[in-house]
Design brief:
- It is a single chain.
- The protein has three domains: 238 residues, 3-Layer(aba) Sandwich (Collagenase (Catalytic Domain)), CATH 3.40.390.10; 95 residues, Beta Complex (Ferric Hydroxamate Uptake Protein, Chain A, domain 1), CATH 2.170.130.20; 93 residues, Ferric Hydroxamate Uptake Protein, Chain A, domain 1, CATH 2.170.130.
- 18% of the residues lie in helices and 20% in strands.
- It contains eight helices and 23 strands.
- The chain is elongated.
């Protein structure tokens, strides 16, 4: 067992064999050359089992090393030592292996680490997988080849693809698991050790030494401390037995500067249709005002709708503007227009993509069934319309039983079908094809008529 004052020497490095068409030895030579050109001191670079690491626990891929010696066009930032996650990443899914999930402290530690990041309201969210809508994925693995925990830096605008924990972590306190998983996820986002210049601040031998000077391989994040202290950051090189796993105020400042809402893109620049197929992906953007563009739908909006106008309609933003989070949804067969919050949206039929907003929008009843021309939906067989019957005229004209002609009174037919009581309610109207005949029956106080062939039908359900 660790003594109370002991430092946990478990944030080291591990194995990842080089991949791609290049010989691993030649690949590593290029990585090392790139790191030195980027300003990393040679004594901070280690080759372990054909993989290159810096700072003890950060694996560097060939692509990441190449990005470190480039300055993006039009950017004043230098990504020489800390590559960043691109704006296209809105939902990062962490997929634990079966062994990871079956280790209680590691599994719970992952959930707590995810909660740490999501509580900050960054421009991306973390989600535990498997799930949908992922614009980037990170595998959470048990590393049995080397006796240290490790991760790596981003490349191609994506977070590093794995965090790797040793089995012995499951025997450590839950707070320690939370701390180290949060720490390794920080590396996947591009964060370096805060005590890079003197790891003895948080570590005991043999995990001490210097990782380099600020001018050679370390980019200071403006607004954060330039000196490290014991317990001053979850990104200190080593945790200790008293670590809580929570972000410090300096950590929160750093993450907000790099990935906070202040850096969020304008909604006017977001093309939601480009995200088709990424159902569940979340996009954070800002509106300078409520906008005035066209919107189709209610709660679910066509993906060519004006985001800011739709946000006001949905009740997640006022006309004065603000930040919103929208979630990509699949194609819909019908979009219903309504009037809410001073915005009138239009109805539409089938469309290839949609979105909804994440937020505390006030639930609204669907539009009145009497406002629809059901016959106009002929041919959209199987599509459904959700509508509301506040009152029901039991004597209204209805033809058929179970399947009704599409010129029947929807609310009276819904009572006859048992979908709603005679006092009214919400009902789903499903478009059905033509029928050769319609039978007359009496049910629930409603008597329907019989009829021969008719070109369109409906069925009703609660």
């Amino acid at each position: 067992m660790f003594k109370q004052t002991a430092v946990l020497a478990v944030t080291g490095v591990g194995l990842l064999v080089g991949c791609g068409g290049m010989d691993p030895r030649m690949e590593n030579e290029e990585i090392i050359s790139n790191l030195i050109e980027a300003g990393y001191p040679a004594n901070d670079i280690r080759v372990i089992d054909e993989a290159v690491f810096v700072s003890g626990d950060a694996h560097v891929t060939l692509q990441a090393s190449r990005e470190m010696i480039q300055t993006p066009p039009g950017s004043a930032e230098h990504y020489r030592s800390t590559n960043l996650v691109g704006a296209q990443v809105t939902k990062i899914c962490i997929n634990p292996s079966a062994a990871f999930s079956s280790s209680p402290n590691l599994s719970q530690g992952l959930d707590l680490a995810i909660g740490n990041y999501n509580a900050l309201g960054l421009r991306f969210t973390f989600a535990r997988g498997p799930t949908t809508g992922c614009s980037a994925t990170i595998a959470a693995e048990i590393s049995t080849i080397r006796p240290e925990n490790w991760a790596g830096f981003p490349s191609d605008g994506l977070p590093y693809g794995s965090i790797n924990m040793i089995p012995a972590m499951n025997d450590q306190p839950l707070d320690i698991n939370e701390h180290i998983i949060t720490h390794e996820l920080g590396h996947t986002l591009g964060l370096r050790h805060t005590d890079y210049y003197d790891r003895s601040i948080s570590c005991v031998p043999p995990y001490t030494g210097v990782e380099g000077d600020e001018d050679v391989g370390i980019i200071h994040i403006p607004g954060t401390p330039t000196t490290a202290v014991w317990d001053g950051s979850v990104m200190n090189a080593c945790p200790h037995i008293g670590s809580t796993g929570e972000f410090t105020s300096a950590d929160i400042t750093a993450l907000n500067i790099l990935y906070g809402q202040s850096a969020t893109q304008s909604c006017s620049n977001v093309n939601v249709a480009a995200y088709r197929g990424q159902t569940g992906a979340q996009i954070r953007c800002t509106c300078s005002s409520g906008g005035g563009g066209s919107v189709w739908g209610t709660n679910l909006y066509t993906d060519d709708s004006n985001i800011c106008t739709a946000a006001v309609h949905a009740g997640v933003m006022t006309t004065s503007g603000g930040a919103v989070v929208l979630e990509v949804q699949p194609a819909q067969s019908t979009f219903i227009g309504t009037n809410r919050n001073g915005v009138t949206t239009s109805s539409y039929g089938a469309w290839g993509g949609s979105f909804r907003f994440i937020g505390a929008q006030v639930p609204q009843p669907p539009p009145l069934c009497s406002s629809f021309n059901i016959m106009s939906y002929r041919g959209q067989n199987g599509s459904s319309i959700r509508c509301n019957c506040p009152t029901v005229s039991l004597g209204a004209s209805v033809w058929g039983t179970d399947l009704y002609t599409d010129d029947s009174d929807v609310c009276a037919a819904a009572v006859h079908a048992g979908a709603i009581p005679s006092t009214g309610g919400q009902v789903s109207v499903t478009i059905q094809p033509a029928q050769g005949s319609y039978a007359s029956t009496t049910r629930n106080g409603v008597t329907t008529y019989s009829y021969g062939y008719w070109s369109g039908s409906i069925s009703l359900s609660p």
